[in-house]
From TrEMBL:
Its cofactor is FAD. It catalyses: (R)-lactate + 2 Fe(III)-[cytochrome c] = 2 Fe(II)-[cytochrome c] + pyruvate + 2 H(+). Belongs to the FAD-binding oxidoreductase/transferase type 4 family. Residues 61-240 form the FAD-binding PCMH-type domain. Its EC number is 1.1.2.4. This is D-lactate dehydrogenase (cytochrome). SUPFAM superfamilies: FAD-binding/transporter-associated domain-like (SSF56176), FAD-linked oxidases, C-terminal domain (SSF55103). Pfam families: FAD-oxidase_C, FAD_binding_4. It comes from the Eukaryota. It comes from Schizosaccharomyces octosporus (strain yFS286) (Fission yeast). GO terms for cellular component: mitochondrion.
Length: 494
């Protein structure tokens, strides 16, 4: 999808067009301390060098930037933004570019400010568990560093090998264990951010309690680069668990999935760290496009991956075994396995974490919806979507049907469903059938149209399904306070 696919989007003439003087300025700023730029105006630059910054992870959105700036320090970010603001050059912050809503790549020719070279871990306090690091640190690298200190990063997700902690903060990513370790809105203690006029906002607090005025860092968490650039953060990290167990169940109905969740919370209480839902269609895709074997023999309508994390192996196993006995006795689950060692544990997680990548291999495209819903109706959205696409003759086995499969999975413990529609090719008929219908469906249940992936370009026109006009007006007023020239993240978010 290039900007041409969105007829309502026009390049805003308020923004300046990049010229050689701008490039010289940026070159000069980053040349010290090992920053760098990729300059598309330079005829000797291979145009494909810009692709990694112009194309998103889903391969759905494509921008046309001619300049990627990779600063090394907060001071450089400040100089760059100040200049862009004075010249009215539009800017897109970019982390690991793994976001799924078209937020991290330009729509037209915005300058990409990529945080990849700001990747230092600054300090870790073993007593408090507070980690201080640059926004560009890859999530997995932060967690590996913490593992050596017997701690863990309080967020984990499938893109951990590429996404950056700053990108995760900017999207308020939820991930696999929010159920246990809470949201980044609670674990991030402090933030350093650069405002569009170059002001550096130093809120690098390491305290758990700080009730002095408005909690401004919260405005940056989940703001997707709309207000400024997160350059550093402090985050409180828990001890690494001494015992981790993973079980994988086959479940005969969604009603029983709900019962299993209720029983799991009751039996496992503080050690329940993940409760992930997968439907059979998602597991058929993983069968087809990964090298892992389905862990339970027969096919079941639903599967659950349940994880416990605790400090005492015997205690945790006792609790898990009691839960499983209960689930089997009451015929809530029909089949299940418990990982016996680290490698089995990894395979069970791959059956869940691999779904997104297997979906990407199913056809040529995937329509993705990431919604929060009350648990009782969470899976109804998948059934209703399937039915709608069948009724409109868009879903079927023949190659005339654009839709291959409708898949539901997600972080059920947090009421978060990922509804994914795999298509043979992106097709306007499918898009029109889904939007705004999916958002209307979600709004009718007072759900959220964006649980954890953000708004980006994809959901900008639909914010009104989750927020009132008064709230949207206040957000726009705040934007004007932070970014009166509107240079940050144009065409997206709200
Ligand atoms: P990008 O994709 O580069 O950027 C995302 C947005 O944040 C953009 O709007 C960008 O402009 C802005 N941004 C980036 N860095 C900064 C910064 N330093 N300051 C200001 N703005 C910035 N998300 C979940 O919540 N839970 C999951 O379980 C989950 N699983 C995923 C699994 C896979 C396989 C993939 C590909 C994605 C998954 N995601 C998940 C999506 C998730 O949003 C991203 O993986 C991650 O949070 C984005 O980090 P990033 O560094 O790649 O950011």
């Amino acid at each position: 999808f290039t900007a041409d696919s969105y007829p309502f989007l026009k390049r805003d003439p308020r923004y300046a067009t990049l010229n050689e003087t701008d490039i010289d300025f940026f070159k000069n700023v980053v040349k010290s301390e090992g920053g760098s730029i990729v300059n598309g105006l330079d005829k000797s630059t291979d145009p494909s060098d810009l692709d990694a910054f112009n194309i998103d992870w889903t391969n759905k959105y494509r921008g046309k930037t001619e300049l990627v700036i990779k600063p090394k320090t907060t001071q450089q970010v400040s100089q760059i933004l100040k200049y862009c603001n004075s010249r009215k050059l539009a800017v897109v912050p970019q982390g690991g570019n793994t976001g799924l809503v078209g937020g991290s790549i330009p729509v037209f020719d915005e300058v990409v400010l990529n945080l990849g070279l700001m990747n230092k871990i600054h300090s870790f306090d073993e007593l408090s568990g507070v980690l201080s690091l640059d926004a560009g640190v890859i999530l997995e690298n932060a967690d590996t560093f913490l593992a050596e200190k017997d701690h863990m990063f309080p967020l984990d997700l499938g893109a951990k090998g590429s996404c950056q902690v700053g990108g995760c903060a900017a999207t308020a990513a939820g991930g696999l264990r929010l159920l246990r370790y809470g949201s980044l809105r609670g674990t991030i203690l402090g933030i350093e951010a650069v405002l569009p006029d170059g002001t550096v906002l130093d809120n690098m607090v390491t305290l758990r309690k700080d009730n002095t005025g408005l909690d401004l860092k919260q405005l940056f968490i989940g703001s997707e680069g709309y207000l400024g650039i997160i350059t550093r953060l402090t985050i409180i990290c828990p001890r690494r668990p001494r015992s981790t167990n993973v079980a994988f169940f086959g479940v005969p109905s969604y009603e029983n999935v709900l019962k299993a969740f209720s029983e799991s919370k009751s039996h496992l209480t503080e050690i329940l760290s993940a409760f992930e839902l997968m439907d059979n269609t998602s597991q058929r895709l993983v069968d087809a496009h990964s090298s892992t074997q389905r862990p339970v023999e027969d096919e079941h309508p639903f599967y659950v991956l349940l994880e416990t994390q605790g400090s005492n192996k015997d205690h945790d196993e006792q609790k898990l075994n009691a839960l499983i006995e209960n689930l089997i006795e009451n015929e809530i689950i029909t089949d299940g396995v418990i990982a016996q060692d680290e490698s089995q544990l990894r395979v069970l997680w791959e059956r869940r974490e691999g779904i997104t990548e297997c979906l990407a291999k199913a056809g040529s495209g995937v329509y993705k919806y990431d919604v929060s819903l009350p648990l009782g109706v969470l899976y109804d959205l998948v059934n209703d979507t399937k039915q709608r696409l069948i009724d409109l003759d868009l879903l079927g086995e023949s190659s005339d049907h654009p839709v291959i499969d409708v898949v539901g999975f997600g972080h059920m413990g947090d009421g978060n469903l990922h509804l994914n529609i795999a298509v043979r090719n992106y097709d306007k008929r499918v898009e029109n059938a889904l939007q705004p219908w999916v958002f209307e469906w979600v709004a009718s249940q007072r759900g959220s149209i964006s649980a954890e992936h953000g708004l980006g370009l994809l959901k900008k026109p639909y914010v009104g399904y989750s927020k009132t006009p008064e709230m949207i007006a206040l957000m726009k007023n705040l934007k004007n306070v932070f970014d009166p020239n509107g240079i940050m993240l144009p065409y997206k978010y709200v």
